[in-house]
Design a protein that fits this description.
Keywords: Lyase, Metal-binding. It comes from Paludisphaera mucosa. There is one protein chain. By secondary structure, the protein is an alpha/beta fold. It is built from seven helices and four strands; from the N terminus they run E-H-E-H-E-H-E-H-H-H-H. The chain is globular and about 50 Å long.
Length: 175
């Protein structure tokens, strides 16, 4: 008998950001989950501000052979987006793809593993690692409504995460 995991997709759903580096986090997670081998079909999608949208992400899962799609919100709590927007997206997917089962999962929190992650972040800050250190004027300029963001991105502007990763690399040999 076939393993139902072969036809079950994982559709990761994040809010979406105007900062491509933030969207890349979800895409990277999807790649890691797929590479782990426990899930045959893994796709990333976004509620807004980035592509693919939820409808396209669900369609990709179906095109790859999914008969059941687990919609996994990359959201911390059951707020308006999850309770209104993601339930509506689930219902829309079900109507567009008759015969395919779409199951919306809970938010990431509250969950004991999230508690451990928050505690780990606090411990990192205690040890002097991981702080986001961008001058407020620079941050305000970098993250204002993105009228000139594309130009900054094309000219080689780097994101907070990349800068933090570089600081971590620099500090990894210290201590």
């Amino acid at each position: 008998m076939n393993d139902p995991r072969d036809t079950t997709a994982v559709l990761l759903i994040a809010h979406g950001s105007r900062r491509e580096e933030a969207n890349a986090d979800l895409r990277d997670l999807a790649e890691r989950l797929a590479a782990g081998g426990r899930h045959c079909i893994v796709e990333a999608c976004f509620l807004e501000l980035a592509e693919p949208d939820i409808s396209s992400g669900g369609a990709r899962c179906v095109a790859r052979g999914a008969m059941r799609v687990f919609l996994i919100p990359y959201f911390l709590s059951a707020g308006v987006h999850l309770l209104r927007d993601l339930t509506a997206a689930r219902d829309d997917l079900a109507s567009r793809h008759p015969g395919i089962v779409f199951v919306l999962g809970p938010p990431l929190g509250p969950h004991p593993l999230l508690d451990l992650l928050v505690d780990a972040r606090v411990q990192e800050l205690w040890s002097g690692v991981g702080a986001v250190e961008v001058a407020s004027a620079e941050a305000a300029d970098r993250f204002r409504p993105m009228e000139n963001w594309a130009g900054r991105a094309r000219s080689g502007g780097q994101g907070v995460r990349r800068e933090a990763a570089e600081r971590l690399d620099e500090n990894s040999g210290k201590g």
